[in-house]
Specification:
The chain is an all-alpha fold and 159 residues long. It has one domain: Fumarate Reductase Cytochrome B subunit. Helices cover 72% and strands 0% of the residues. The chain has five helices and no strands. α3 crosses α4 and α4 runs antiparallel to α5. The mean pLDDT is 93. The protein binds protoporphyrin IX containing FE (2 copies).
Length: 159
């Protein structure tokens, strides 16, 4: 059994990373477009629109990733067996859950019930905490030069 993620899983992982950076980048424009004392600029309106559609795209991609994860889970690595593997699983599933919840609450806040924006913002704090743990762990594996990062990179042979 291969210990690598498939090319589609790898492409989706990095596409979602880029879209999350875009979400963070565009989010500030939204309150400006809602401010009754400010005339929204074209750039703010475009960023608001981008945030909504990119966020919905993240929701769809997360559903696809979870389905792929059930269909094709890469083999385990000897070096991460034990508590590290369990911790990684918790963070990965936490990321899937918070990102799905954020796409959902963002949609509800924008089109159905504005107060859901408070929940949307609160979930972002949890997502950011999980991303920090995840990226710190990835950097730790890069520093150790072990096989973990290669699992999520294209064109590298399976570890
Ligand atoms: C996983 C996908 C998403 C991420 C990571 C994300 C991220 C963010 C972030 C970081 C903020 C600013 C939070 C803050 O100021 O503390 C925000 C605000 C907002 N987002 Fe999203 N978002 C996502 C999906 C969506 C979707 C799908 C919609 C609408 C269709 C949406 C609508 C909004 C709105 C309306 C606000 C402004 C809330 C306010 O300031 O009152 N978001 N989002
Ligand atoms: C917005 C930021 C990120 C999010 C939301 C995210 C999310 C995820 C998720 C959910 C998984 C689990 C995949 C699965 O098993 O289904 C994963 C795996 C992985 N990610 Fe990220 N990721 C992010 C950024 C990064 C960065 C910046 C790196 C590298 C520096 C990275 C490296 C990896 C690696 C190596 C794996 C495979 C771990 C393993 O084999 O157990 N990720 N990521």
């Amino acid at each position: 059994m291969t210990r690598k993620y498939s090319n589609l899983q790898i492409a989706l992982h990095w596409a979602v990373v880029l879209l999350i950076v875009a979400q963070w980048w565009t989010a500030d424009a939204i309150p400006r477009t809602h401010n009754p004392f400010l005339r929204p600029t074209m750039a703010d309106l475009l960023q608001h629109k981008f945030h909504n559609y990119s966020g919905m795209t993240i929701g769809v991609l997360i559903a696809l990733r979870v389905a792929l994860r059930f269909l094709r889970k890469p083999g385990r690595l000897q070096i991460t067996k034990g508590w590290r593997e369990r911790a990684a699983e918790c963070v990965h599933w936490g990321l899937y859950a918070t990102l799905a919840a954020q796409a959902f609450t963002g949609f509800v806040a924008s089109y159905m019930w504005a107060p859901a924006a408070g929940i949307h913002k609160a979930i972002w704090l949890v997502t950011m905490t999980l991303i920090s743990i995840h990226v710190s762990a990835a950097i730790w594996h890069i520093a150790r030069r072990d096989a973990v990062l290669a699992r999520m990179l294209p064109c590298k042979r399976a570890p």
